[in-house]
Design a protein that fits this description.
mainly alpha
């Protein structure tokens, strides 16, 4: 049942978003008034729509600065995300979706989300989540001690 509702939200977002793009403040207000679950579903649909509309291409990762080739698109989508999620409640929704990892499947939409979150001043929360999820806790907790003792091979 939930998947059918999500599919309907995807269709709605796909149909109205081209018109909503010119009224992002009003769209942000709508998200603010939704229940948390509904706001999360809508946010995932918006991210999916932005990803499929603006990032449906491949970028060659050859070369030293491959990420420069699509930075204008990344910045534009990040600007849209910033305009939608610039209130505290909406920022929490975007952070929750990004931390959860669902709805941000492509590297380009991930970059846009991280840029928007950094513009919102909330990048520390994402970094803490990444460290908690992917890091070796023993290494992180004991690295300062190893560095102080001078036994760390990188520090001389």
């Amino acid at each position: 049942m939930l998947r059918r509702g999500v599919d309907q939200v995807d269709l709605i977002v796909e149909g109205i978003f081209p018109r909503v793009i010119h009224h992002l403040a009003e769209f942000a207000t709508v998200i603010t008034h939704l229940r948390r679950t509904s706001a999360i579903i809508l946010t995932k649909s918006v991210l999916q729509h932005l990803s499929s509309t603006y990032f449906d291409y491949t970028t060659s990762r050859e070369g030293a600065r491959w990420w420069d080739s699509d930075r204008t698109r990344i910045g534009a989508v990040a600007g849209v995300l910033y305009d939608i999620f610039n209130t505290d409640k909406n920022a929490q929704i975007l952070l929750g979706v990004v931390k959860g990892g669902t709805g941000v499947d492509s590297l380009s939409i991930q970059r846009s989300c991280v840029l928007a979150i950094s513009q919102l001043g909330r990048i520390d929360e994402v970094i803490q989540n990444i460290l908690a999820t992917w890091s070796d806790k023993v290494y992180i907790e004991h690295t300062p001690v190893v560095a102080q003792e001078g036994t760390c091979p990188q520090i001389k």
